[in-house]
Structure formats: structure tokens, C-alpha cells
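Incident log entry.

Two folding requests arrived from the same account within the same minute. Monitoring flagged them as a possible duplicate submission, but the sequences differ. Recording both here for audit purposes.

Request one:
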Amino acid sequence: MFDKILIANRGEIACRVIKTARRMGIRTVAVYSEADAGARHVRLADEAVLIGPAAARESYLVADKIVAACKQTGAQAVHPGYGFLSENEEFAEALAANGIVFIGPPVSAIRAMGLKSESKKLMEKAGVPLTPGYHGDEQAPEFLRQQADAIGYPVLIKASAGGGGKGMRAVYKSEEFTDALASCKREAASSFGDEHVLIEKYLQRPRHIEIQVFGDTHGNCVYLFERDCSVQRRHQKVLEEAPAPGMTPERRAAMGKAAVDAAKAVGYVGAGTVEFIVNQDGTFYFMEMNTRLQVEHPVTEMITGLDLVEWQLRVASGEPLPLAQEQLAIRGHALEARIYAEDPDKGFLPSTGRLVHLAPPEESLHVRVDTGVEQGDEISPHYDPMIAKLIVWDETRERACARMLQSLASYRVVGVSNNVGFLSRLVACPAFAQADLDTGLIEREKGFLFPEGGAAELPREAWLAAALAELLREQANAEVSARSDEDPHSPWHQRDGWRVNATARRTLAFRAGESEKSVAVAYAGRGFVLELDGQATPAAGELKAGGQLRADLAGRRINATVVIAGEKRHVFLDGRAFILAAVDPLFHAGEGGGAEGGLTAPMPGKVIALVAKPGDKVEKGAPLLILEAMKMEHTIAAPAAGTVKEFRFGVGDQVTDGAELVDFEAD
């Protein structure tokens, strides 16, 4: 077994590997970019080495720097995590050339499965079922369009060297193909340095089911059952579960055998995932093999009771697989939800900023949180905006779903937009609850997942909790101030509303969306009377650290959390999150402008295409330019019918969050 390993990654997977290695008595080395100097994985590791600037292509993606860090620290092996260099054959070769063990498959297996088109040819020879499509080398746009026409629409364009939904587009009409192809090639070249694509038939209402495989250097290979990853958006997984709902023992055995055959066809060693696209009738086709550990591997660990990272370390050190196929069994059901810094109501636009308040649910035998960040850390624009993975387990799927809802309800995130509320709606969605799954579920259930309204739905208790927390916080601050004063007992320190021959009243105002409400406050002994919408409510309570509020509202006891972030008041109540803004009565906003002026960047990124030209007359919603941010393309569209006056940036220019991109004149 190794004495010391280096983790060539960041975030939650780096933290996870460090945790397992420490339990096995293995010392760890973290690598980090300048942006990650204070990151959690750096704090957890035994040693850490700076490898370059924030940009991944200048740090985490530079193989020579990883090799140098191994030599500097004496690390005997490298765990690549996922993403970055985890499936890079040149990196694996560089490690081998320097006598460093790559904790992953042989270079030959990475090469064989690295290009989707080549891997499909291998799978065909191995007898693994394939989706109808074109997997050849000819890449002329017109030729590819002809192939798509022959396959029949809809088709899926996929980056041959890709993964994670990048460089992938569904096309429903021949006339849409050329533009979609150009976009795929741009994204593939940017993300993987290879614009080669393949074309496949896009199945209607398919499920995405993958099989976890594991091989060793002694010729053994097993499958550790399946994961259903059908719930996706933009071809990226959102919720994963194991085992797959409705999976029969016969189909599980057939898919498991196909996955093992695929792994053996390339002499696979270590952890890998064979992904299948599955029709509603149960027929399945090979899609790709990921030659690494998957983000969603914890659900497999939860239903098998195994540590897959430990298996990786043992196999890489030359040990045989710990268990044979007949010794593996499924127990219970597990779900994983990816907690992201993103705004579901704005097309899942990634969010950046400091985690002002971060309180995950308490971990237990049923609940696990894998994370690479803590309260106070930054979600930067340089890397994937994942905050954490929330994994739950229970005896049945129904109970696991209930436990997931309970855990999401107690997840508190302030400082960045996040998808916790969206995930709660997703798990509660009748289609998901009934396991009516396919990769289009989110789009199909849009009405349920993205309800109309917002501020109007705020319960009365949310407004009252915000006001009560404000008042209790004032009292606590006054007590702290009094203790540091020369006369701590002075009545001027009191915040009890005392007045001579009068009853003190004041007003607190809050805004949520387009709705603004005032809460009239009357001081009453040890508490208050809060008047909202003409209804008076006696209120008292206790405010603890972290904004935890225990409130008594007219005899009704409630627990809430109220966190301040600037003018915003984040109220967590009854499993829901509400954002209110404290209104300063002395502030009067000026007159606003119209639709004219500059269109701004929603986040830091790079301009990769100018779709329109200065002087163009465009309709509302027409694409103007394409911005690449966090390895995804974002189209900036016209807010109204009008004229493009001028672009402030050119192709290749880096832009900051809020930068004005286009001078636009509305009609």
C-alpha cells in the first residue's frame, strides 16, 4: 500500500479522497491554484503545493506541474478525481514515465474509451448493443447533416471527446442542424481541445442508466449494480439514485454482463462507469464509458456499504478486488442531489460569491454531505459551481425520497443563488415520486418545477419572522454595547421602546419581489405586538447564533432561521427559503430608464462569437453574442425589438460580471 498520494483535483472529490486515505493511514498531498489557496481540500491535506494561477489550463490541467509536485513531496501515486486530467492519457503516460502510479485504468483503456466514435467500434466488436448513428471520422458540416437526415430526426450531436453534457445538442429539424453543429464544435474545442463530433438517434423518453464496474490487475472484473441518472438538465445530471426504479433482476444481470464485457474488451483496471441509454420498454444501448470515478458514486456506496475510493487505492497498489460478484448485494435505496450555486429561474445560470451562511443538514447513517467548501469560502467563476452533494439512504425508495425532502428542507445557503428550493420541488414532483423517469422530466414538468408567482406566496409568518429577528438582533447588539460602556446600566442602552407618557411605535418595511409590506411594531413588556395587513400579532422569541429564531406568534411556536446579507433577509421557514429586502424609509429611488443602453454580462466569461453586427435591426429574443462562462455557452439576446449600435468587446475578450457588452437601442 502507498505511504503518500497526491490528489490532482479540488473541491469535494479531493476532500473525499483525503478522508479515505487518512482512514487507511496514507498521507496526502493537495495541489492548488492561486484561487484555491484557502480552499477546504488544502486545509485538510497533510501537505499542499501551489501549481499556478486560477485558470485551470494554467494549473490543474498542466501535467508537468503535477509531476513536479509529486517529485517535490515524494508522492508515490496520483488520484485524479474526476474532470481535469482524470481521463487524460498523456497525463497517465507522464506519471508512468516518472515511476508514479496513476490511480486509474491503463493508458490503453483511457485511449480506447476516450473517443466516443472509436469506443463504439470496440463495443460493436464486443457484442455490446449500440444506438443507431454515425461514428466516423468525416467531419464536413454538410456530410454530417446528410448523415443526420439519413438517421432521422431528432438526432443528438455529441462531442467525441466530451462528457458532462458539454458539446452536446439535440436537433429536431434538418434546417437547425448547421447552427447546432457549429455551437457543439465550439464548445467541444473549448472544453476538450477536440471539436470532433458524432451523430446518434435521439431516443424519445429515454432513461440514462449506468453500471459501476471495477477491475483489478489479476483479471477480475465485477459490476456493482446500477444508478439511474435520468433526471438531467442540459444533459447534466441533477438527481441520481440507486438502484434504478423498476429494474428487474434479469435486466440488471444483462446490463451488468454488457458492462463487464465492455470493460474486459479494453483490459480495464480500477473504477469505471459504463453508461447506457434505455428505452421505456427496457431495451438498452451503450452510450459511453467514463474511465474514472463518477460524481454520483456515493449512491452506489450507500446501497453496497463499500468505499469505492478505498477499492481504487487497493487495486492501484496491486491488491485483488476485495469481493467477488456473488458476494455483492443491494440493500435499500439511495438518492444524491447536487447542490449548485446557480439560479434555476434564470436558466440555471451559475452564481458566484462568498458563502455568507452555509448550514448543511446533520450527517448520520442516513444522511451524508460531500463538500469542498465551508461557510465563508468563495464560489469562484473559475471552476464548477458545485457547493455539495447531498446523499440520503433508507430501506425503500419512498422513504429515501421523504428523507431527501427533509434534508433539503434543513439546508441553508446564503450568499449565492442556489438550487435547493428547485431540488425540493423536483423530489416532490409527482412524476419523480412515482418513478415516471426519463431525461426530459425537468422540461416535461416545467409547470410544477417553476411555479408562477413568488412574493405573493410568502406566508405571513415569513414577514413576521423577518421583523421579529430584526428587533431581537437590535436588543442583542444593545446589550453588547452596554457591557463595553462606562455606565452599562444606563437606561439609554435599553431597546424596550420605553417613552415618557407614551407608547412607542415604529415601522419596519420589507420588500419581496414586487411586493412591499410594512410591519408596525408596538413594544409590549418582554415582547412586541406586530401589525401586518391590519392584523395584530403578539410576538416574542429568542435569536441564537447563526440566525436561529425560536418565535412565539400569538401562542404558536415556530422555528426559523433569519440570515442577514447586506439589505437582504434570508428567511428559512417550514422547509422553504424566502428572500426579503429591508427597506430604508429615508431612501427614495430615482427614475428608472427604459430598454435602451448596454446589455451586461450575467457573470465573468469570454466572448466566443458575435452573432449580430453593428447596425442590425433585430427582434426581441434575437441572439446578439455568445459568452462562455464556466465551460458553458450563454447566449445574450435582445431584450426588445431594436438596433444593435455597437459591441463593446470582440471575440476572445474576457469580460467581468456586469460588464456592458452591447450598445442597444430599442424601437
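Request two (distinct sequence, not a duplicate):
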Amino acid sequence: MAIETQPLLTRRGELMARLSEARQYDIAVVGGGSTGLGVALDAAARGFSVVLVESHDFAKGTSSRSTKLVHGGVRYLAQGNIALVREALQERTTLLSNAPHLAQPLAFIMPSYKWWETPFYGLGLKMYDLLAGKAGLGKTEFLSRAETLALLPTAQPESLVGGVKYWDGQFNDARLALALARTAALHGALLLNYCRAADLLYEGGKLAGLVCEDTLTGQPYRINARCVINAAGVWVDELRQKDAAANEADGAHPTKPMVAPSQGVHIVVDREFLGADVGLMVPKTADGRVLFAVPWLGKVILGTTDTPRHDLAREPLPFKEEVDFILNESARYLRRAPVRADVKSVWVGLRPLVKPQGEDGDNTKGLSREHTVLVSHSGLVTVTGGKWTTYRAMAEDVLNVCIQNALIEKRKEGTTAHLKLVGSGPPGMKTTSICQPPGLHSYGDEQSQVMSLPGAHVALCEGVTEAMVRFAARYEYAITVEDVLARRMRLLFLDARLANSLAAQVGEILVHETGLDPQVEAFSELAQHYLRLPE
């Protein structure tokens, strides 16, 4: 059954007024990425009172910078992590069912250039099908050379002997994060972006809430909560260290960092380099990494890398060797290889890989992709690691840990496995492929609501209208130009030059809608950042 969309309380002043009310929440969540939003939705759906604060915009960090794949993890299968693959495959099906307008099946071609690659990798992918069981999206097929080129005509034909076709999923990560936020709000949660968790509150040595700050005004707010969940992704250690310092006298153990950030770089080029609505997957590049070429919103994403990173920059830059690696490896598998001049946008995400306590090495490829939940001496619950595909299972696990540690009382079991997200529409609703350029299809059954707003027929560029900007401000928590063009419309990730050309127009609409500074100049600087290739 589709969710009935109602006007959401997303106006900034009204949200902050609610936050200032004296009350005690069951749960306060710090972090508005996939994990924090998943926890907020699960908790609100169970009937808990929930507040979530995010220091920047929802999905500003890692959760908007994925490879856009909803997958079980073919490489995890090669590592022998059967449990992780099986869980992710089940969650893949759940996600595709609960948000069909934002997550859909996608066929992948794995070209073979050596005689043994088709049977070797094909049998592994047959096991992938077996693990998926009824949750499978399509059967793995062994392809001849001609069949491979028919499905992927831009594949490098020289030395090609065949290939394998298998199925996984793709999605619109930042818009899925917004769907989680809005669905949580419909279930009573209070969610605030641009609201930083500045400090923690204690009573009798136990965590009792937090102090947050509206980053737009500097106004502090006190949040009383029975349980505080630290879901800040690669930034979880900052709050953990505050907690340890506050409780050092009460016997708390010294806190060692639990996250080893790994940098993933993605390069975006025009669709013509792939030329089909199928993905390309290379299971083992020159240095043993996996390379993808994924059609997405009218462009192609090339990546990704896996490089240790020791700082926690909000907008990390790619390293020269990472860009060279992606372009050079692409040249080995594509008939026409993209060069630096073809790059429309380049962006970097930091993966929150969990570091075993006492582990100081730099081999992030060997670190766990599974999530970890820890409870501190004072009761701070920290969750990090994992991946987008398993966000829902992670949220259930977090709440179960909270209940087991008597931080919240047990209520009904989790209901999110069958909880449709905002925009999902009724079963069987026709959806447009995510491979297509941005447009109304990202809104699912809310398209008519967007069309009812002023500017529905005023195009800012192909697929993006004035009404979409107004919808982002009224219903999707958007405040700045970056919020709109990076995470509501995705244009910054697709074509940074085009996004920059629209900044002033979008800024004018936002001022009219919100009365707040849309930060046009800051966005223009950021757009240059997404165009910058290291020399």
C-alpha cells in the first residue's frame, strides 16, 4: 500500500521551534547518512520518539558518493564471506521492493579476455545466484564473443573471447536517503540537517542527551534522550572521544579509533563510452581491485578505488594515481577509452571501514566491510561500517543492541522489511529506468504533486524544472544550492559545469522559498572542485 504523502514540517523555523520544546526523546541519533536515517526510520516505525541531527545536509558525506550499486558483493563472495553476501542479497530485494522508483535491477557484463575467465567467474556468479535463491534478479548466463559484443558493443573487441552476464541492482543514493528521512518524519521523527552535535549530556555518569547547535544561526539546543546513537559514519570517533574524556574519572577505558577511512574515487563521463543500459564489471584489475562502469541518470560512472586516507575531509580530493588508474584500466576494456578532457565530474567518498582494535596498518582492502555496534561505559551506542545495501538490517541490529543493554524498552518488532518509502507508489506502478537522465521519474508517485507547484513547465535544463527546486525546499529539507544540485537533482555528480551554470537561478528560487542564504558562491567553488583533476 502506498504512503499517503502529506505536507511535511520541513520549514526551518518550524523545525527548530519543535527542537526547542522541553521534552525527553526515547532516541537521539547523530548522523544523517544511510545508517542514521535507517535507525531513525526503524525506531519511529516501532513507536519510539526520535530526533536526528546532521551537521551538514542529509547524505552529504559517504551516503551520496557510492558507486550507486545495490549488491550482494561479488568480491566478498571471492573472499569467502558467505554470510555477508547472503544478507546483502536478501536486503537488495527488500530495498528494490520498498523503493522501486529509486532502486532497480541492472544487468552486468563481465567480458573475458582469457579462455578460463568465463567458466571461472561464471561458476562463481552461479553461486551468487544460488545464495540469492528466490531473491535473485535474473539468471547468470555464459556469453560467446558475439553475444558479449551484442550486449556491450563498446567493449574492447581485441582478444575478447566471451563473457558472463549477471544481475545486481542500482539506485539513487542521495534521493533514497531523503526518502528515508521523509518516511521517518511521516512516522513522527524530528529530523534536522545543519544541526551539529556539539557536546554530550550526562546524569550520574550515564548519557542523558546532547547539546546541538544550529549551524546556520549558532543557536544551541538541549536534547534530552534516554538513548544516544552515534551514526556519524567515518566521523564516529569524534563523539566517542568526547564520551571517553567525559567519563575518564569513572573508569572508562581509553578510546582507540575504530574507523580506518578508505577513499573511493568515481569519474563520470558521457553515456556514449558504454553505449548500453548494462553495467561493465571487471573482477580483477592490474592491482587486484574491482572496476565498474555503471550507466546512471544518463551518464556513466567509472570506478572505484580503495585507497587508505588518514584525514577526514568533507570534500576529499582524488589522488593523481587514482584518476590515472581508473582511466588506464577503462582503456583496457572499452573500445574508446575516456581521457581527462572527457570527465564531466569527479567525486570522492570515504568508506568507514572498521579497524580491529590495535590494528594500525594501511591495508584497507583487507578490513571488514561489515558493520560494528559498540556500547560505551556511559551508554553511548556507536555504529559504523557496513554498506548502503544493508542499511535496514544494520538499523535493526542497532535497536536490538539498545534493547539488550536496557537503554530503551522493548516494543514491537521491526516493521521496515515491508515498509514502503515515500514516493514508492502502489505495487506494479510503472517506473522509469534509473539509467535515464534526471527527471520526474525520481519522484515516483509524487510526480503530480511536483507538477502542481509554480514553475512546473519552466525548465532550468533538460529534466529539471523550477517546480522541482520549489519541491526540494518545501518538502525535502533543501536550504542551499548545493542541497538541490548535488543531492536532490544530482547534477553536480553528473556534470559539474552544467550544475554551476544553474547555481544563480536555483539560488533565486531558494531565497523566495526559504528566505535563507542559498550560498551560491560557495557552490560555484565546490563545482570547480568536482571538475579538478590532479596533475
